Amino acid sequence: MSKELFFKTQYEPDENGHFGEFGGRYVPELLMPVLIELEQAYKKAIQDESFLADIKKVFKNFVGRPTPLHYANNLSDELGGARIYLKNEGQAHTGAHKINHCVGQALLAKRMGKKRIIAETGAGQHGIAAATVAAKFGFSCTVHMGAVDAKRQAPNVFWMQQLGAEVKIVEHGTKTLKDAVTSALQDWIGDPAESYYLLGSALGPHPYPMMVRDFQSIIGIEVSEQIQEYIGENKKPDYLVACVGGGSNAIGLFNAFLDDPEVHMIGVEAGGRDVTKPGEHATRLANNSKVGVIDGYKSYFLQDDQGNVESTHSISAGLDYAGIGPEHAYLHSVGRVEYTSVSDEEARAAFTKLSRSEGIIPALESAHAVAHALKLAPELSSDKNIVVNISGRGDKDLFIVNEKLNAKINN
Amino acid sequence: MPRSITEQIKLAKQENRMALMTHVVMGYPSLEDTRQRVLLMVQAGVDIIELQLPFSDPLADGPIITVANQTAVKNGVTIKQCMDLATELSSQVEIPLQWVGYYNTVFNYGIEKFIKDSRRAGIQAFTFPDLPIDEEPYEHFFELASLAGIPVIQLVSLITPVERLKEINKLAHSYIYCVARFGVTGTDSKMSDEIVSYLQKVRKYVTVPLAVGFGISQPQHIRDLRDSADVVVVGSALLNLSLPELKDQIQTLCAAL
To answer: Is B34 a residue whose pLDDT tops 80?
Structure first.
């Protein structure tokens, strides 16, 4: 019997949104009433069967769920170890898992009577998904995006605008996701009554980490059903591998299995160009960053000695973030999930590898998970299996991959 | 030695006026400029000065103060340097100086050490807008600061419900900071009648003086608040003025108190 959305695990937060020492609601007083209202509206909605029914209907008919779980036979045969399965969230409408929490939050915002959706975006996938649900469910939409991200993900800016969203380019700070988050929060502080802040990952102040996780948990729920077709009834996967920026796709895959101790879970962070140099990577957990309180929640953040947020680097905009969702911080601290990293170069190689061996072009974010699976599979016996979350498809990365490939040819 | 904030507000009351609180970002554009700016503000008649500890991601501040924070961070300003400058200033001024900033700065510095060093530096109060009372059971910051005799100032907003106002009042000391309009710090908005009625509502549930800030830049704003606030806060509007402009502007604002 598979789980239903909004199930609980042993890793739930307390009533103030603290996962162990992490999480919470470290926000200005202006936002407190709004967050409390949101939490109450969410709790009420998940008690209402029609909310679940609405989500399931939109997941099926609009998003195109369930997304396939595909046996990567060519890759598995070539590597000669564990069998690799790919959960292809790239097949979801808009091309990535982000649509899952966008649908859930848009339906909630509708129930709350909100008129405008505010979102931040790194890679642009969340922004596209937010603009999409805004169009579908009748909201106006403002997407905040760092200028650096907007440049490297220019097609997504164009598509967001086509979907009717206003894209607000953030020109201050590092001009990446962290500045987009700050800018979006500032926008929300300025218009709390009419607007809904549609947060794009399992992070930020309570109740977002819990709420985004719950909507994303559909990924793991589907995997737990789909894997049985390949490995037998009531069997669980041995390994789950997902990339971790803020951590929404990873927690979405992991959550349904957290209470199954036999399932190993690995979160893959962006190793960038050099994990030993500040500003050259975005590995928070695998690289022992410090606990801090930033962007409204307590977690591990890459910071300098004064507690200022350090700049980060990753080939993938979606992993290029100094913090990590509080539940991941907690799962790391209690040892439930293992966190590791792969470099830009490894991710790029995995991108090419998966494209050629399986006919699936992954997002560069997801290519990080693939890169780790390429290392892991040969170390395991052939009776083991690994589920890799392909959180999004690679179309959006055309220019960045092409640029890198070109540079290689020219050298 | 600086007076306490409570004494300073009382002093202003005896002169039958509101108190004026101004703001600087430590190390913006340089620590030396901050030093001169603070001394000039004191000379021009300011009652309380908020010294902002620079932080890379100041989520409750608007673009003007955000850029100032990020510039100071980029210049490599350390909290230790801020403590040293506060110590020096405290020995020269009689009005209260207080920290304003973001909680990660405190958390990273070490909560107890931060409180101890701030006390030594003559700091009279703390405002950390991203530390709401709900996190106090986890952080114990109000408790530790109050043991050291430093009040933690709380903020309320136009949408803070009455029940919450009562809770906030329980931990209130020196004054409560009322955010006068929606949005982050900035200079572009008008004061509204809504704000006056909001302040009257807050007054019913709050037993300490009221400070009003966010969006105040003109003498008329100050005159509009005369019957409803005890302290007016002018921040962003002064941040990028040259020293001579700053002096003139503060004197103009003081005349409206």
So the answer is: yes
Residues A73 and A54 occupy one common structural domain: no
A120 catalytically annotated: yes
Query: What's the CATH number where A145 sits?
Result: 3.40.50.1100
Sheet strand arrangement including A18-19: A18-19, A22-23, A297-301, A290-294
Evaluate whether residue A114 is within a structural domain.
Answer: yes
Question: Contacts of residue A16 in chain B, CB cutoff 8 Å?
Answer: 134-135, 137-138
Query: Which value, in Å, is the radius of gyration of the alpha carbons in chain B?
Result: 17
- Domain end among A182, A212, A242: A212
Q: Is the pLDDT of residue B183 over 60?
A: no
Q: Which of A18, A21, A22, A26 to probe the B interface (max B CBs under 10 A)?
A: A26
Say what angle helices B243-255 and B31-44 make with each other, to 10 degrees: 30
pLDDT digits (tens, 9 = 90+) for B120-158: 999 999 999 999 999 999 999 999 999 999 999 999 988
Please report whether residue A3 resides in a domain: no
Helix ranges (H only) for B121-173 are 136-139, 141-147, 162-170
DSSP A63: I
Same domain? For A366 and A257 the reply is yes
A293 and A373 share one domain: yes
- Which range is least confidently modeled, A190-194, B72-76, B239-243? A190-194
The verdict on A231 and A306 lying in the same domain is yes
Query: Taking 60 as the threshold, does the pLDDT of residue A411 lie above it?
Result: no
Task: Give the C-alpha separation, B217 to B220, whole Å.
Answer: 9
Closest by Cα among B254, B230, B250, B227 to B239: B250
Last residue in a domain, options A212, A242, A268? A212
Residue of B nearest to A187 (CA): B183
Average pLDDT on B14-26 reads: 97
Overall domain count for chain A: 2
Identify the closest residue of chain B to A15 by CA–CA distance: B134
Does B61 qualify as catalytic in the annotation?
yes
The domain defined by B5-255 folds into TIM Barrel (3.20.20)
What pLDDT band is residue B168 in, cutting at 50, 70 and 90?
A: very high
Give the residue from B111, B148, B113 showing the smallest Cα distance to B128: B111
Q: Are A89 and A201 in a shared domain?
A: no
**Quick check: A325 pLDDT over 60?**
yes
Pairwise CA distance, residues B102 & B104, whole Å: 6
* Structural domain span for residue A221: 64-95+216-410
What number is the ipTM of this complex?
Answer: 0.94
A151 is catalytic: no
Contact A189 B156 (CB under 8 A): no
Do the domain assignments include residue A341? Answer: yes
Q: How does residue B220 score in pLDDT terms, banded at 50, 70 and 90?
A: confident
Same domain, A341 and A234: yes
Strands (E), A72-154: 83-88, 116-121, 140-146
Judged by average pLDDT, the poorest of A8-17, B83-92, B116-125, B198-207 is: B198-207
User: In angstroms, what is the C-alpha Rg of chain A?
Assistant: 19
How far is residue A407 from each of residues A399, A402, B138, B172, measured CA to CA in Å? Answer: 12, 8, 51, 60
Domain assignment of residue A128, yes or no: yes
Beta strands A338-343 and A195-197 are unpaired
pLDDT digits (tens, 9 = 90+) for A340-350: 999 999 999 99
Residue B187 pLDDT greater than 50, yes or no: no
